[in-house]
Amino acid sequence: MKLSWKTLILWSLPILFIGFSLWQGIIVPEQVDLGQNVASSRMTYGRFLEYLDMGWIKRVDLYDNGHTAIVEAVGPELGNRIQKIRVELPNSTQEVITLLRNAHVDLDAHPAQNSSAFWGFVSNLVPPLLLIGAVILLFRRSGNSSGANNSSFSFGKPKSLTQVKAKPGITFNDVAGVDEAKEEFKEVVTFLKKPETFTSVGARIPKGVLLMGPPGTGKTLLAKAVAGEAGVPFFSISGSEFVEMFVGVGASRVRDLFKKAKENAPCIVFIDEIDAVGRQRGTGIGGGNDEREQTLNQLLTEMDGFEGNTGIIVIAATNRVDILDSALLRPGRFDRQVTVETPNSKGREAILSVHAKNKKLDESISIEAIARRTPGFSGADLANLLNEAAILTARRKKSAISISEIDSSIDRVIAGMEGSTLIDGKSKRLVAYHEVGHAIIGTLLQCHDQVQKVTLIPRGQAKGLTWFAPNEDQMLVSRAQISARIIAALGGRAAEEIIFGNSEVTTGAGNDLQQVSNMARQMVTRFGMSDVGPLSLEGQSSDPFLGRSMGSRTEYSEGVATNIDSQIQLIVQSCYNEALRIIQKNRVVIDRIVDILIEKETVEAEEFVKLVSEYTCPPKIKRRRRVLLSV
Ligand code: ADP
Ligand code: MG
Ligand code: ZN
Which residues are catalytic (predicted)? Predict the structure, then answer.
């Protein structure tokens, strides 16, 4: 271990001082050596003199240069048994000795013994030694715990700066549904394995690859797969670890990370969750010169500091590319950017196949069908889905996962755990009307997604649920579709109001109203779907850190703000009127479906549409896929 002597000396000084003090008895007073004469009781000097006068004292042993005496006394007060009593004597030992001699008491004096002095010395030495040992241990711990041979003796060591050797575990085969990203990383592996192919034609190998995409889409997994495939050293650290331990350590961690990487080139440096350090500078609360900013500056410096062809490739992952500092994205740093999207139907099928490999699926199950029914699921959701299904299967003591477990697991992943049903009563009726309100509007509006099922079985926070089957991975949504969604989302409240009256409406619509407001606001401020005109007035206000978008709402004038508000109100009010109209017009069928729903708890799409079509003519059922819209 190579020590930095400056730090060692700096740290040993206080320790030596403590050790020396202990030794000298400054902190812990030296103990009186009383030999074997351990006396349990004590008495005062005055009482001792009284005992002496009475002739009860038989023997006195002096210790501690005559300051302490162990007295053997016998008398009626002591139960006529010889007892050993400890007495603290005044300073004038000579006087005591004279007294004792006059009284003809046995007298002996005991100097401190050499052997006990030795043990005292040793026992005084132990605590400082222990302390020094503990501190050395602390230093080693805070250093690289893997005990790499050239770890320097300093605090700035990321504890998880571990070198991951090509793991046999994860390869590109374990990552599915993100083919473009995979291709990109296969190339990165080639850069590291055969750089000549590129350098011989004058190509500069990129320094950094930024991997971005929503959570759970397999970014970390991809990076691990690169490590598995590349067969080069792989240094992995998570952005949050840079800022985790001590203030002022982040920057030195970055320095160490790159120092280590340079020593081990060719290699890969993987920085997970880079947004934790790489956030836009100068936007935080409390000034710009904070810990994180220094860490980021160091990172930028290090990335500029090595040449493109030294064989180090930095891979960073984030799901918040919008808040990253633009300096990170400049060419010469993370000049390659790879996006991983939430997988489409084909991608989901591939991911499901990967995760189904080690699970026992019933033969009747079609992976393709599951993939079709799970739009919007990320890779992590799908892995979770299959795992939940497997757990459920085990709980039901079945030998293979069947479609029914898959079904419940999909519902569970989307909407949370199943709760126990409400007891029959007014609230249950109200929830039933609320849900049927959503469902009937969803069914009758031409542009709305098909109803999948209506249920009164609670899940997560929701007391009842209406499931809709959206169009396959729809990218573009029309104005009519958004309006239809708003009307259907208001259907629950509309039904409550019509059936139970204005004063009986409940808080159950809170979630719906939130969605409605969001959709209406976006129609006005982002999609140009109102009389305000085709203007984009607000960015995605998704920054929880008061970051860049702070103050974006002042991009328009007061007048426009008022106009926006009135347009939102106009949209929501006209949609609500439409919802009320549809509920009113279909009151008869709604009553009937509610009765059935209360009895059966769940009404599936076919039955629902059949019932509705006995009174009107709703659109035909399309494909069966589920996603939750309303609660
Ligand atoms: P991210 O880092 O993007 O948030 P992870 O890589 O940590 O997501 O993914 C979490 C888990 O989800 C993985 O361990 C894996 O089991 C599963 N997963 C996610 N994406 C995929 C994918 N494309 N292929 C296979 N499994 C995936
Ligand atoms: Mg991750
Ligand atoms: Zn609702």
Answer: 435
For the segment 447-497, what is each residue's pLDDT rounded down to a tens digit? Answer: 888 888 999 988 888 888 998 877 665 678 899 999 999 999 999 999 999
Distance of CA 444 to CAs 297, 372, 481, Å? 58, 24, 13
User: Where is the binding site, in residues?
Assistant: 213-220, 434, 438, 512
CA dist., res. 146 & res. 540, Å (int): 44
| Structural domain boundaries in the chain | 5-28+118-144, 41-113, 162-339, 345-415, 425-630
Q: Quick one: which atom of ligand 1 is closest to the CA of 354?
A: 25
pLDDT at 361 over 80: yes
pLDDT recorded at residue 102: 81
Enumerate residues lining ligand 1, CB below 6 A: 175-178, 215-221, 351, 354, 379-380, 383
Counting other chains too, the contacts that 561-564 makes at CB distance below 8 Å and 24 or more residues apart are: 563/532, 564/521, 564/524, 564/525, 564/532, 564/537
Fold: same for 345-415 and 425-630: no
pLDDT of residue 438: 95
Q: Which residue has the higher pLDDT, 234 or 622?
A: 234
> Is residue 37 predicted with pLDDT exceeding 60?
no
Probe target for ligand 1 pocket from 211, 219, 221, with the most ligand atoms within 8 Å of CB: 221
- The catalytic position among 435, 496, 497, 578 is 435
Please report, for the chain, how many H helices and E strands are present, in that order.
Answer: 22, 15
* Nearest Cα residue to atom 14 of ligand 1: 221
pTM: 0.64
Inform me whether the pLDDT recorded for 114 exceeds 70. Answer: no
Cα–Cα distance, 370 to 42 (Å, whole number) = 86
- Residue 27 CA to residue 21 CA, distance in Å, equals 6
CA distance 174 to 221: 8
Judged against a pLDDT cut of 90, whether residue 60 lies above it is answered with no
Looking at the CA of residue 343, tell me the nearest atom of ligand 1: 23
**Domain made up of 41-113: CATH architecture:** 2-Layer Sandwich (3.30)
Q: Would you state the CATH architecture of domain 162-339?
A: 3-Layer(aba) Sandwich (3.40)
Residue 418 bridge partners (DSSP) = 459
Annotated binding site for Zn(2+): 434, 438, 512
Interacting residues of 578 by C-beta distance below 8 A, sequence separation 6+: 487
Element (H, E) at 382: helix 379-395
The CATH code for residues 345-415 is 1.10.8.60
In this predicted model, what pLDDT tens digit does every residue of 162-213 receive, in sequence order?
Answer: 554 545 578 899 999 889 899 988 888 888 888 888 888 888 888 889 999 9
pLDDT per residue as tens digits for the range 543-583: 444 444 444 455 688 888 999 999 999 999 999 999 999 99
CA 380 to chain centre: 15
425-630: CATH architecture: Up-down Bundle (1.20)
Whether 30 is catalytic is no
